[in-house]
Amino acid sequence: MTVFKRAQVGLLLALPLAVVLSVVNSPSVTEAAWQRGQFSAGSFGTVTIPAPTLNGQCTYDPGFLGAGAYVRILWKPPAGYTLANAEVQVSTSGLGSALAPLTGYNLAGNTTGNATSGYITDVQTNLLGGFLGLGTELQIAIVIKDLGWTSKSASVASNAGLVGGLGGNCRNLPAA
Fold first, then answer.
1. 176 vs 151: CA distance, rounded Å
2. How far, in whole angstroms, is CA 15 from its chain's centroid?
3. CA distances from 162 to 5, 8, 56, 62, 133 (A)
4. pLDDT of 35-47, one tens digit each?
């Protein structure tokens, strides 16, 4: 065999061995990197939902000796919002507060009017809260909810009086 033929045979045997070795021993990680000379800027903020407004003086109606007592609120949502965006939040304080919980309240069912001219909402007290007011103060807040955010409130406070709604009253609270 000639030297030339031996070189060819050796090359043919070495080539598969080189391929196998390169697959088994992959190249190591380098410290090569790249950068881009362009930057971006951003910002973030919060959503502010405008609060509803009171557009008249609230009233307390004692009903008949406290039975059927309710608080009437005159309010208007901010532009672009309706009754569907509103929620009533109620808290009580005073000696009779345990007697006057507000449960199962339906805002749409107790409200008349429209977003343009304003709404009239009646919030009933229960029988014991109206009859045995015991100086209970009922604070009612209307808020607007949208996109998971809640506005500041338009609030009123009423006092059911001592007994039978006698001396009961309501007053609009300053904007929070």
1. 10
2. 70
3. 120, 115, 26, 11, 5
4. 777 777 777 777 7
Residue 109 has pLDDT above 80, yes or no: yes
Neighbours of 110 (CB within 10 A): 16
176 Cβ contact list (under 8 Å, min separation 6): 51, 152, 153, 155
Residue with tokens 């345990």: 98
62-98 pLDDT, tens digit each: 877 667 788 899 999 999 999 999 999 888 776 544 4
Of 63, 59, 66, 61, the residue nearest 129 (C-alpha): 66
72 dihedral zone (left: phi>0; alpha: psi -120 to 50; beta): beta
Q: What is the largest CA-CA distance in the chain?
A: 128
Backbone angles phi and psi of 151, in degrees to 5: -75, 175
DSSP string, 69-135: -EEEEEEEPPTT--GGGEEEEEEEESGGGGG----S--TGGGEEEETTTEEEEEEE--HHHHHT-TT
CB 87 within 8 A of CB 142: yes
Do residues 54 and 75 make contact, with C-beta atoms less than 8 angstroms apart? yes
